Amino acid sequence: MKQYNHRKYTKITTVDKKDRRWPNKTLDTAPQWCSVDLRDGNQALIDPMTPSQKLEMFEMLVAVGFKQIEVGFPAASQTDFDFVRKLITEDRIPDDVTIQVLTQARKKLIDRTYESLQGAKRAIVHVYNSTSKVQREQVFKLSKDEIKQIAIDGATWVKEGAAAQPETQWQFQYSPESFTGTEINYAVDVCNAVIDVWQPTPDNNIILNLPATVEVAMPNVYADQIEWFCDHIQKRDALIISLHTHNDRGCGVAASELGVLAGADRVEGTLLGNGERTGNMDIVTMAMNLYSAGIDPTLDFSIMDRIINVVEKCTQLKVHPRHPYAGELVFAAFSGSHQDAINKCLAMYEDGDTWEVAYLPIDPRDLGRNYQEVIRINSQSGKGGVAYVLEQEYGIKMPRWLQVDFSPVVQREAENTKAEVDVEQIADLFNTTYLHANANMKLNGYQVSRADGVDKFDAMLSHNDQQVSLSGQGRGVLEAFISALSQYLAKELVIIEYNEHTLGRDDGSEAMAYVQLSIDSKRVCGAGRSRDILGATLGAILNCVARAV
Ligand code: KIV
Ligand code: ZN
What we know:
By secondary structure, the chain is α/β, with parallel strands linked by helices. It has helices spanning 37-43, 51-64, 78-89, 107-116, 133-140, 144-164, 184-198, 219-232, 252-261, 283-291, 304-315, 336-348, 383-394, 400-417, 423-435, 477-489, 533-548; strands spanning 32-35, 68-72, 98-104, 122-130, 169-177, 206-212, 239-245, 266-269, 441-451, 454-463, 466-474, 493-502, 511-519, 522-530. Strands 1-2-3-4-5-6-7-8 form an eight-stranded parallel beta barrel, surrounded by eight helices. The protein has a three-stranded antiparallel β-sheet with strand order 9-10-11. The model has no long low-confidence stretch (mean pLDDT 94). Bound molecules: 3-methyl-2-oxobutanoic acid and zinc ion. Residues 40, 102, 128, 175, 177, 209, 211, 213, 244, 246 line the site of 3-methyl-2-oxobutanoic acid (KIV).
C-alpha cells in the first residue's frame, strides 16, 4: 500500500449538539491568563532554561502583568524544585501573583511538590492524569474506572497535602490530560469525581483545565466540547473552567478564543507560542487580538522588543519574522499600493483618533515599533513608500511629480541588487540623482540687480574646470537665471514644476527646492539644498542642467 494514504486517519469526532450558543456570542472581556512558559514551554526545549533564564522569564512575565504563572514541575526536575524554592525563600513573588506547579497524580510526586512549596503565601497545585481513549487503552492499559480512580486518588493526596500546610492559601487545579481525545461524558464523569473530593464552593473554587493536549480537530469542535462540558458538569459556579490548547493544526489561538465564547473563564498558554511540537497557544496573539478589538487584554505588550529578546534568549528559538504582532515584518509594507494607502491614512491620523489605517490592524507604536519601519522598499514598492521613507528619515518632502521620477530609480536599484533597499541607500540614490549631479557645474558667486521691473542676473560659473561668465534678464530672478543658462548652453530652458520647503522649524534650518526643467523639450528633474530658498532653487536648476548635458 502507498505510504501517503489519508485512509489511515479517522474522521473527526464531533459532539452531538443541536443547541450550541457560543456562535452567537462575542468576546467582550479578557479571560484570566496563566502563563505556562516556565513549565510546558520549558519542557519542550532542546536545552531547558537555566535557573537564571527561568528567573529572567519569570520577572518578565510579572512585568507583562500575569497574575498566574506555572513555574515548573518541581517533583520531576531538581532545577524546577530549586527554582520554586528560590522564588519563595527569596520572596520574589509579588503579592498579586500566584505561582502554579504541575504534578502527576502520584503520592510520592505530590508529597515532593508540597515540599517545594513550603512557606509559599499562595499557590495553585495542578494535578493531572491522562483520560483519553488512546492513553487508557494503549499506554496505561487501564479501564475507565481505573483511570478515574487515579484522578480521585490524586485529588485526595493533593487535598491532604494542602491540609498539612495550612499556612499557605491553596487553590487546586485538575486537568484530564488529552481531554479532546476523551469521550466527553467520561471527561465530565472523571471531573465530577474530582469535584466530589475537593468540594469547591463559589468562594473557594477550583480550576478544571481542559487541554487540547494534541490539537486534533477544528476549533468549533473544541468549542462544542467546552460548552457541553460547562452545561453538564456539577457545581459550575464553584469552578474556573480553564483552556489549554496546543497548536498542532495551527489553530491553538482560535480554539482558545472559541472556547472562551463557549464558557471558559481562563486560558493557559505561552509567550509567542513556544511549547510541545507546534507549541502552546500563543498568549501574545490572543491578547493582542482582544486589544485590537478595543478590549483591555489586562496584559501589557508595549515592551514587545524586550519580550522577544527574553523569549529568544530563554528558548533559543527565533521569533518568525511574520509572527502575528511580534514578527519583524508584520507592520512592513513592500507593495506600492499598500504603501500609498498606509501613507494616506497615516497622514490623516491624529493621536487620539480611532485607529483606522489600511493594512495595519494596530498602531505599531503600541508595541514600541515606529512608523519608519512600516514602509519597506524593494522592487515591488511604489513611489508613495519611497517618499514616505525620505520624509520620515530626512524631512525631504518630494512633490508628486518628483516621486514619479524617482520611483523607477529605486526600483532599478532593488532589481539590480535583488534586495531590499534601505533608508540610507534611498537617500544616497536621491542625493546622487538630484542633489549632487552638478559636481562639474558650480556657481562661483552671482549678482542680481533690478531696473524698470526687469531683473538682471550676472554670475561666474565654473563648468568642467572652466570659468564662464553668465548674464541674463527676466521678470524675476529665476527667469533671469534661466535666460543666462539658456544663452550659455544654446538650449531652450523652461521651468515646468517648482516646489520648495524648509527642512526644519528653527530659524537656522535649510531650504530644499525641487525643479523640473524642460531642456530642448526633454524633461529633467533636480533638487537643491541651501541656507536660503534662492540658493536652493538655483542649485536645483543647475542640477537639472548638469543631468541633461
Ligand atoms: O498539554 C497538556 O495536556 C498539558 C497538561 C499537563 C495540562 O500540558
Ligand atoms: Zn500542554
